[in-house]
Amino acid sequence: MKIGLEIHVQLPTRSKMFCSCPATGASGPNEHICPGCMGMPGTRPSLNKEAVVIGIKLARLLNCTVPDVAWFSRKIYFYPDLCRHYQITQYETPIGNAGEYYLDKKRIGITRAHLEEDPGSMKKSGDGALIDYNRSVMPLVEIVTDPDISSPAEAREFLKALLNDIRHVVDLPDDGERSIRVDCNISMAGSERCEVKNVTGLKNVERALTFEAVRQTKVIKSGGKISRETRHYDEERKVTTAARKKAFEGDYAYIGEPDLGAINVKKIADTITTKESPLNMAIRLQKEYGIDEKIAKQIVNTSVSMAALFEHLARKISAKNALMWITGPISSGWKTLESQINEKRDGITDIVIQYEKDEINRTECSMRLKAFIFGEDPENMKKNSADLDALIKKAIDENPSVISDYKKSDKAANRIIGIVMKESGGSYSSSDVVEATKRILNGMI
Ligand SMILES: [Zn+2]
User: Fold this and answer.
1) 83 C-alpha vs ligand 1 centroid, how far in Å?
2) Cα of 38 from ligand 1 centre, angstroms
3) Residue 415 C-alpha to ligand 1 middle, in angstroms?
4) How far is the CA of 173 from the centre of ligand 1 (A)?
5) CA-to-CA distance for 326 and 346, rounded, in angstroms?
6) CA of 136 to the centre of ligand 1 (A)
7) From the CA of 34, how far away is ligand 1's center (Å)?
């Protein structure tokens, strides 16, 4: 099974792509329109630079080559939602060319990423249709992947990771998922491909592709042939239906767009610094600090600022110890720490440096970090922890068989944890009790 996706991402610009109409906030249909985005004779497009800037950022995220100079083309076709009867798009010089994206170790080739305008939106009404041109000339980037995706679930996973990365690079609004439309191309071994157009939402992409995989397999098994066609996905009935025979790219006429001329992309690109995507950050941390791939991803996925804290510490102390403190006390106190990280970063650094210089031992360092994160008095915490240790030791003394049971299975610790939780009447957090019990039992076996 081969799957390739064409992902249309609506760009969060303030105004439309080739006119000054606002890009958001219309309260009703056909409110944000002007002669330009209505394609009136005599109007000329003028390019919104903001769209080019975002296009370059996305192209870089996808590790694409960005051209120095780009042109737009007119893609000519007739449809009521396209009032000029041609769509301004990039054909020969897309903003991003031949990139790649890694989903774990799986490489997904990016054929291209190009800028284009959206047509209006049309909905059926009785025998006719209603057209809303608010969407006309809204900026899009279309990301086209190679047919490297091997299952509907992988397609969903890829889109999820990609969207997450895109959100870090550009400020895509939270409802971005719905403003992302995907054309899904799927073919079974050696057979023609079908394209399911305009699917919105990750779940629907997986469902539409699964439906197609089953349908196509059935057709082939019963001796039929898959014909190349465009299909629609019906969200309510959860099926795809034939729309029209697929138009080949050659069926469209493209001519250069003379009104916009050559775009000096390099000049714009040289002024942009791109934020690092979480995925690229994980890959870099792994390489630069020699940490395990899975752990690097885990830290970045928990929070980019936790990953930044790791990096900050790894520059002051050894990466190995920085990782130990991050995955230990810092990670368990992260909920509390996250909102205060800017004020507390230096304090945390000071504590771990003391351990690095052998001024305090590991238990002491761990205790001080916890106290500092939760804003508690370390002496008090020490006393509490000693009290807790005493309670646990007493429970073990009274139930000595736990030690031999614990050797066979970790689960034996639960007996002691249960007793201590009950006796202490909830004055210790369960995670503290679990940690201390395991530490003490491990020291006994
Ligand atoms: Zn307009």
Assistant:
1) 12
2) 7
3) 70
4) 22
5) 14
6) 8
7) 4
Q: Rounded to 5, what percent of the chain is helix, strand, coil?
A: 45, 20, 30
197-207 pLDDT, tens digit each: 888 888 899 99
Q: What is the residue-averaged pLDDT of the chain?
A: 88
Segments in 122-194 forming alpha helices (H): 152-169
Round to whole Å and give the CA distance between 217 and 226.
9
* Residue positions counted in the chain: 445
pTM of the model: 0.68
Q: Give domain limits for the chain.
A: 2-269, 278-444
CA of 84 to the centre of ligand 1 (A): 13
pLDDT score recorded for residue 159? 92
Instruction: Give distance in angstroms: CA of 25 to centre of ligand 1.
Output: 14
How many angstroms is it from 81 CA to the middle of ligand 1?
14
141 C-alpha to center of ligand 1: Å?
A: 19
Average pLDDT over every residue of 330-354:
90
pLDDT band at 179 (very low <50, low <70, confident <90, very high): low
**Residue carrying structure tokens 């196509």:** 216
Proportion of the chain above pLDDT 70, given as a percent: 97
Give pLDDT tens digits for 57-67.
999 989 899 99
pLDDT at 177 over 60: no
Query: Ligand 1 centre and the CA of 96: distance in Å?
Result: 26
Distance 45 CA to ligand 1 centre (A): 9
The rounded Å distance from CA 35 to ligand 1 centre is 6
* N-terminal to C-terminal alpha carbon distance within the chain: 53
| Rounded average pLDDT over 272-285 | 83
Cα of 211 to ligand 1 centre, how many Å? 39
- Of 174, 410, 300, which Cα lies nearest the Cα of 309? 300
* CA atoms of 271 and 255, how far apart (whole Å): 30
What is d(CA 158, CA 100) in angstroms, rounded to the nearest whole number? Answer: 12
Compute how many other C-beta atoms are within 10 angstroms of the C-beta atom of residue 249: 9
Angle between helices 378-398 and 362-374 (to 10 degrees): 120
Beta bridge partners of 233: 240
Spacing, Cα 12 to ligand 1 middle (Å): 16
pLDDT in the model for residue 251: 67
Bridge pairing between strands 180-187 and 2-10: antiparallel
**Mean pLDDT of all residues in 299-303:** 88
Tell me how far the alpha carbon of residue 119 lies from the centroid of ligand 1, in angstroms.
12
Whole-number Å distance, alpha carbon 176 to ligand 1 midpoint, is: 22
Tell me, what's the pLDDT at 248?
Answer: 56
Q: Using the 8-state DSSP alphabet, how is residue 172 labeled?
A: -
Q: Are 103 and 165 in contact (CB under 8 A)?
A: no
